[in-house]
Amino acid sequence: MRLAYRGEPSERTAARRWPVSRDRNPSAEPIRIALVINMPDAAQEDTENQFLGLLTSATATPLDVEFYSLPEIRREERAREHMRGLYSNFGDLFSGKFDGLIITGTEPRQSDLRREAYWDSLVALFDWAEKHTRSAILSCLAAHANVLHKSGIERRALQEKRLGVFEEARVSDHALLAHAPDVMRIPHSRWNELREEDLVSAGYTVLTRSAKAGVGLFARQEGASLVIHSQGHPEYGTDTLLKEYRRDIKRFLRNEREDYPSAPQEYFASPALKLLSGFEEKAAARRDEGTLAFFPDQQIVETLRNGWHTAGTAIYRNWLQYLASSKSGFAEKMR
Q1: Which of 64, 71, 79, 169 could make an S-S bridge to 75, C-beta 3.0–4.6 Å?
Q2: Where do runs of H (alpha helix) occur along 133-195?
Q3: For the CA atoms of the chain, what is the radius of gyration?
Q4: Candidate list 132, 144, 188, 233, residue with the active-site label
Q5: pLDDT band at residue 9 using 50, 70 and 90 as cut-offs
Q6: Domain total in the chain
Q7: CA dihedral over 278, 281, 282, 288, signed as positive or negative
């Protein structure tokens, strides 16, 4: 299903399901984007809204967005019903004409990504993007998979989950970072990483780096497409890390993991940390899924602040400008 967006950012939820009639810039040709959502069911709809919200807040140019998902991603009936009429058939993507491509990550089930059920579909998408898009953004696991496929670089497992909001410094004058802060706070959520020395030796340009989280953004020209890789998540909503943390706690309570999860770093204010410490004591005393009913969601949400939206909007504004200028024949060089 094509999502023709012409409205204000506040209308993005409705725009996900039907066109908004009021034009923002009726003289501009729409930028066509294929958005491949691969996140698990619990995060699927949030991810749709996060990316669409970030895209629409970053430009006044009309956007023409189509949703897809790798066909091998396991879905429950509720998610499949949600996708009917909203997502286009994955096979049809390869015959479509798009200016840009965004591929999200997903939860890995295998230590070797090449053993994932969706590997062949993902590789086919990477290879297609080289020839048929002006630029692609690959998020988290998608970035790791592309680097493995194109450069043979294996991601490295972390001792603990890298979860939190980390400062990333600009280390390049790349046009993707124009008007972005010199130091930006970006959410991360992953169990693996790509190392800077491996990426640089393979010809990737590192754009941002964190002392605590490693490489954030990096890029390389691949065929006709400028491919932007992100180990972080500038698209995340204010409460996304809270939801992920809550899901990790739920897994602990259901005995799906042995240890109680660590709280996201540099994300919660002191009052929230105090509430969470109290809940951890309850969870330790009663390790049962029913304990989750006492989780102080609302009290914590009220303390959260989004310190990365401005940086994320700047990055996506530059990317969309690059796509728009490519369409007009006056593309800026972003290599």
Answers
A1: 79
A2: 141-151
A3: 20
A4: 233
A5: very low
A6: 2
A7: positive
Inside any domain, residue 335 = no
If asked whether residues 17 and 39 sit together in one domain, one would say yes
**Reported confidence tier of residue 333, pLDDT bands at 50, 70, 90:** low
Q: In the annotation, is 258 catalytic?
A: no
Check whether 22 has a pLDDT greater than 50.
Answer: no
**Cα–Cα distance, 182 to 173 (Å, whole number):** 10
Position 28 scores a pLDDT of 73
Q: Inform me whether the pLDDT recorded for 195 exceeds 50.
A: yes
CA proximity to 156, closest of 99, 197, 207: 197
Express the helix, strand and coil content of the chain in percent, nearest 5 each.
Answer: 40, 20, 40
Contact 33, 66 (CB under 8 A): yes
pLDDT in tens, 274-332: 999 999 999 999 999 999 999 999 999 999 999 999 999 999 999 999 999 877 665 55
* Active-site residue, from 140, 167, 193, 244: 140
Do residue 206 and residue 290 come from a single domain? no
Query: Residue 66 in contact with residue 2, Cβ under 8 Å?
Result: yes
| Confidence band for 6, pLDDT divided at 50, 70 and 90 | very low
Is 199 a member of any domain?
yes
Contact 216, 231 (CB under 8 A): yes
Q: Are residues 104 and 249 in the same domain?
A: no
How does DSSP classify residue 265? B
Q: Let me know: does 3 contact 67? Beta carbons within 8 Å.
A: yes
Annotate 279-288 with b (16+ C-beta within 10 A) or e (fewer).
beeebeeeee
- Between the CA atoms of 310, 190, 135 and 13, what dihedral angle is there, to the nearest 10 degrees? -60
Give the pLDDT score at 29. Answer: 87
Domain assignment present for 149? yes
Q: How far apart are CA 152 and CA 326, in angstroms?
A: 30
Q: What is the pTM of this model?
A: 0.91
Confidence check: pLDDT of 23 > 60: no
Pair 210, 187: CB distance under 8 Å: no
Same domain? For 177 and 215 the reply is: yes
Is there a catalytic annotation at residue 140? yes
The full length of the chain comes to: 335
